[in-house]
Amino acid sequence: MVKRVLLALIRGYQKYLSPLFPPSCIYEPSCSQYALEAIGKYGALRGSWLAFKRILRCNPFHKGGYDPVP
Fold first, then answer.
1. Helix ranges, the chain (H)
2. TM spans, by residue (predicted)?
3. d(CA 32, CA 49)
4. pLDDT tens by residue, 47-58
5. Half-sphere exposure of 32 toward its Cβ, with a 13 Å CA cutoff?
6. Residues near 20 by Cβ (< 8 Å), separated by ≥ 6?
């Protein structure tokens, strides 16, 4: 249940909010796509934790690049 709610929120962000801003994620896949994949693969708790750590790394002090869900 929680997993489906989180996935719906992320998809809503991708569809309605993300297009309003210029692309800024330094990683591939984007942080929101990474969150979708992580939650889909590992569930709400562990997937959210992985997404949270990824979002913290998404800043100018990190190199970026290809960073798939483990």
1. 2-12, 31-42, 44-57
2. none
3. 13
4. 999 999 999 999
5. 16
6. none
